[in-house]
Each structure stands twice: as structure tokens, then as C-alpha cells.
């Protein structure tokens, strides 16, 4: 693993060698499926669209934006109901299929051709749905630790994953059901990152993001089940795909990442330092792997 990390870091540093300054990120809005979605954009070149996970928003990708924007067009999209804006339509349409439909419509609205799509955690199965339902919209797919095991067929392994998911999210769910959203905001990253001191050691910006998005637990607890994604379905994906997993992540996410990688032909599967929140805590190896995939896939950097 150390050798892989060093190789990826060397590739990243070489790529950044010609880095030029870029304009400051811009906050924009898009009208999508009858609602207004907020997104952050910075840089030029091929569009790379980042979709955040549970209880977060585009701010989760700040470290990726800083690595990607000097070379590509970084776009961090807030899914419906996430971020600080008022909810656009009450809570009537919260579902992973709604998010997949919104993302597909958003990509079409960019009028920039197929995009390189990046997901993490809760958005892992959502970006999978986008690829499966609208493959013409996506040039490459990257996911850090998808939050799904519907494609895991071994009952014993699926049972282990389910038990670990309950251990990870049970306290946050209990807090949300009790109306303690500040508690849910704190317990969510503590649980998924398997890190008791996460809240005390993370940045104020990360804490604020989780606090701002804790209200989405109300919708998540009442949401319909995620659309099933089978191994056979994932086997139909033909585009370049990168799946990453943290070396020290909890078993649910190991099983989810390894299961997805085993179903997708030609996948690049990379173990990186860190845990579920490695994209924010230790982003260097993830960013190096992503930049390597974009180069290999032929995504055009800015001139």
C-alpha cells in the first residue's frame, strides 16, 4: 500500500508542476426538474462533477476542488434538500432515484458533453444509478467507499456489513429520531469514520457543514428503499471506473467498496490511507488516484 501511495503522490506532484493560478470558486444555481440546485464551480477544462455524501454538501470536496480546479472544471453539486438553502418542495420527493434524476438533468444542462462523475458514501449508489440509466452522460466514474451492499451476494458477508452499518449509524439515527439534530450531526461522522474524537479534532468548517445538513436525517428516515443495484447490473458498466477504499475504514465500507470493484470489469481499485472521510482528512492519495484516472481516461485539461 505504501508503494501505491508513493507512486500516486509522485504522479500528482508531477501533474501539479505546471499548475497555474485559477479564479476563485463561484457559487451558481441551476434550474433542474422544477427546483433550484446550488453548485460550486472553479477552473476550466473537462467538467468533473462531484456529488457529496449523507449529511454534507459540496463543501465536503474542498480538498478535491483545490487539486482539480487548476487542471479541470471542478463542479460540486448540492443534491436536493442538502446545503443551507430552503427545501425546494417540502419533503415529498426525497429519494435516491430523485437525486439520480436531478444529477442526470443537471449534467444535460451543462451542455458540456459527458462528464467525469465522482461520488462518495451515500452518493455512491446514486452515481451508479446515473451511469446505469444514462451512460451517455458520463465519461468516467470514481467512487470513494460507496454506501451500498445490494450487489453483495454472499449472505454471511452481507450480514456482517449490515451489522456494522447499524453500529456505525445507530446512535446518529437514535438522536435524529429524538429530535436531537446537533447530536446527530456529531454522531454521524464519529460513527461512519469509526473515530470517537472526530468532532473534537476536525475543523470548524467540517463541523458547520454537518450541523447545517443534520436536518436531512428527517427525510432520510422516511425515504423509500434505495433502488436495487445488482452485481449483474454493475457488470454492464464499460467506462473507466475508479473505486477507492480507506486502509483503516470500517468493515461495512470495505465490503461495499470491494463488492462494487469485483462486479465492474476493468475497474481500478485503490487502497488509500485513512478512513471513510479520507477525502477531507487525508485527501492527497485520493486526489492523486483521481487525477491519474482522468489522465488515463483522456479527459482534457484546460489549455
Describe the structure.
The chain is α/β, with parallel strands linked by helices. 46% of the residues lie in helices and 18% in strands. The protein contains 13 helices and 9 strands. An 8-stranded mixed beta sheet has the order 1-2-4-3-6-7-8-9, with helices on both faces. A hairpin with a 2-residue loop joins strand 1 and strand 2. It is globular, with a radius of gyration of 18 Å.
Based on the model shown, name its key terms:
13 helices, 8-stranded mixed beta sheet, 9 strands, 46% helix, 303 residues, globular, alpha/beta, disordered N terminus, Rossmann fold
Which structural class do you get from the secondary structure elements? Answer: alpha/beta
The CATH architecture of the domain at 28-154 and 230-297 comes to 3-Layer(aba) Sandwich
Q: What is the mean predicted local confidence, pLDDT?
A: 93
Q: Give the total of beta strands.
A: 9
CATH class annotation of the domain at 28-154 and 230-297: Alpha Beta
Distance between the termini: 34 Å
**Which overall shape is indicated by the principal axes computed on the Cα atoms?**
globular
Q: And the CATH topology of the domain at 28-154 and 230-297?
A: Rossmann fold
Strand order of the biggest β-sheet = 1-2-4-3-6-7-8-9
Our Rg estimate from Cα atoms comes to 18 Å
Amino acid at each position: 500500500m505504501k508503494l501505491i501511495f508513493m507512486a500516486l503522490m509522485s504522479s500528482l506532484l508531477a501533474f501539479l508542476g505546471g499548475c497555474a493560478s485559477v479564479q476563485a470558486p463561484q457559487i451558481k444555481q441551476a434550474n433542474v426538474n422544477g427546483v433550484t440546485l446550488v453548485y460550486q464551480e472553479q477552473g476550466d477544462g473537462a467538467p468533473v462533477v462531484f456529488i457529496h455524501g449523507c449529511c454534507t454538501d459540496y463543501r465536503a470536496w474542498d480538498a478535491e476542488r483545490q487539486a482539480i480546479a487548476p487542471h479541470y472544471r471542478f463542479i460540486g453539486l448540492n443534491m436536493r434538500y442538502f446545503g443551507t438553502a430552503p427545501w425546494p418542495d417540502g419533503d415529498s420527493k426525497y429519494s435516491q432515484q430523485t437525486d439520480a434524476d436531478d444529477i442526470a438533468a443537471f449534467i444535460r444542462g451543462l451542455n458540456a458533453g459527458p462528464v467525469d462523475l465522482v461520488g462518495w458514501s451515500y452518493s455512491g449508489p446514486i452515481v451508479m444509478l446515473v451511469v446505469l440509466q444514462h451512460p451517455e452522460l458520463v465519461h468516467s466514474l470514481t467512487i470513494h467507499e460507496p454506501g451500498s451492499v445490494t450487489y453483495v451476494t454472499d449472505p454471511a458477508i452481507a450480514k456482517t456489513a449490515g451489522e456494522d452499518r447499524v453500529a456505525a449509524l445507530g446512535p446518529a439515527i437514535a438522536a435524529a429520531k429524538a429530535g436531537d439534530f446537533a447530536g446527530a450531526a456529531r454522531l454521524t461522522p464519529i460513527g461512519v469514520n469509526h473515530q470517537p474524537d472526530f468532532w473534537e479534532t476536525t475543523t470548524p468548517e467540517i463541523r458547520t457543514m454537518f450541523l447545517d445538513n443534520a436536518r436531512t436525517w428527517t427525510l432520510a428516515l422516511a425515504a423509500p428503499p434505495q433502488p436495487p443495484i445488482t452485481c449483474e447490473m454493475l457488470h454492464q458498466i464499460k467506462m473507466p471506473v475508479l473505486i477507492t477504499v480507506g486502509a483503516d475504514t470500517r468493515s461495512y465500507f470495505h465490503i461495499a467498496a470491494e463488492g462494487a470493484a469485483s462486479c465492474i470489469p476493468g475497474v481500478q481499485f485503490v487502497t488509500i490511507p485513512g478512513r471513510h472521510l479520507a477525502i477531507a482528512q487525508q485527501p492527497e492519495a485520493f486526489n492523486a488516484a483521481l487525477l491519474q484516472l482522468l489522465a488515463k481516461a483522456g479527459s482534457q485539461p484546460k489549455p
